[in-house]
Amino acid sequence: MTAATRYDDIADLLARRIDQGIYPVGDRLPSIRALCREQGISVTTAQSAYARLEEMGLASARPRSGHYVLPRPRPRALPTVSRPAQRPLEVAQWDQVLTMVGSGPSADQPRRLGAGTPALDATTLKPLGRLLAGLHRDPDPRDLGYDSLAGHPPLRQQVARLATTSGCLLHPDDVVITTGCQEALAISLRMLAAPGDVVAVDSPSFYGAMQILEAHGLKAMEIPTDPRRGISLEALELALDQWPIRAIQVTPTCNNPLGYSMPESHKRELLELARRYDVAVIEDDIYGDLAFDTPRPRAIKAFDDEGRVLLCSGVSKSLMPGLRVGWIEPGRYRDRALHEKYISTGASATQPQRAVAAFIEKGHYQRHLRAITRRYQRQRDIMIDWVGEYFPAGTRISQPQGGFLLWLELPDSVDTPRLNERLAAERLHVAPGPMFSASGKYRHCLRLNYAERPTASLEAAIRRVGELAAHTMGPE
């Protein structure tokens, strides 16, 4: 174990003790010397652990006195239940999505405070880097050709094993590896709906899925969504009664962008509605493994005994987006999913699949999840506190149950697309609310990312967004 990994582990241990009340707010934490004796570590490692605890916002140092436990963030008002249009709509907003995803990071690009990118500096990712380097340094000749259309068999086996943590019993042969979760969603929607058809979605909804609807001429039926419980089942049933809905597309666990995890009873009821109206459910579970609670919540797929649920996921949010490793368990639609995979991208790249399979098999994935979810939970609380301090009065803040994305509902007079225009002059960018709606709703809302470690620079950026948000209130 490296020294860097060691001090991360010690910081996580102290954080858990704070969570459990062993060290209450205001209490002095063990001295550097006491921590060294208890854990058998060096002074440098102990100091680094306390520095990390300060970054988490859990402790502060007092000169010649030691480290003390800080208060936790105050509870904030949640966003209101969404009220989208009560009819199917064509999707727009591509220009705003392109601004968000059109180019990678560079010196010329703004600081993207709302991007859906995970933390890539976690020390628990180092074994994955070594696996990838080894595959590139000494490639297996078989990696240089096409892999199985369904995906690398060892990876499909590991995906099936992982699925048990979400309550799903999958067979490796039923898993199809895709080029990211985005392709899994695209395959699902292409299979289930034709141009002009209607798909029910939660609202606000992931803009990537919305753009798939737009690209294939599908209409979105946005369903009111509660920031605690998720999609309104009453509104969904009414929509199923009134409109010829072909599929229900939801992100029920660690939702993007609202962050909620739908209660299990709600998931069961949603699946029962789908059975009653004989429609398929496309379940986007890309953030599910990043749930803060353990065991992680069960997927809707866990309750499906008809093959009605198409489970889409991947490692773009839990590991690295650049791997482009995703998967779909398409239930009764497997043969059609394989055909859609063939005509879109064919077999996915082999080496990333091999690296991810080995990373999971060796136990690195679960260890990474334990560390990164603790980190995200701390950083969520810090970001919520910053927003509460620096944003206009009346700002409502989501309380994510996992993942690394925060949804803000600002006063109605704030216009977030206009806010972004003003931020551009200072090389800052947020994800404005209209991106997450077919009709361009949520102009007074935005999404923030809290995966980046808290620093003075990040706090200053959040403060500036809040200041400019206040300046956009009211008429031009």
UniProtKB/TrEMBL annotation:
Record's keyword annotation contains DNA-binding: yes
Record protein name field: Transcriptional regulator
Entry keyword DNA-binding: yes
Annotated ranges, domain HTH gntR-type: 4-72
Pfam families linked: Aminotran_1_2, GntR
The organism's taxonomic lineage, starting at the top: Bacteria, Pseudomonadati, Pseudomonadota, Gammaproteobacteria, Oceanospirillales
Highest rank taxon of the organism: Bacteria
Family under the similarity heading: In the C-terminal section; belongs to the class-I pyridoxal-phosphate-dependent aminotransferase family.
One GO MF term: DNA binding
Keyword line: DNA-binding, Pyridoxal phosphate, Transcription, Transcription regulation
Stretch list, region Disordered: 64-83
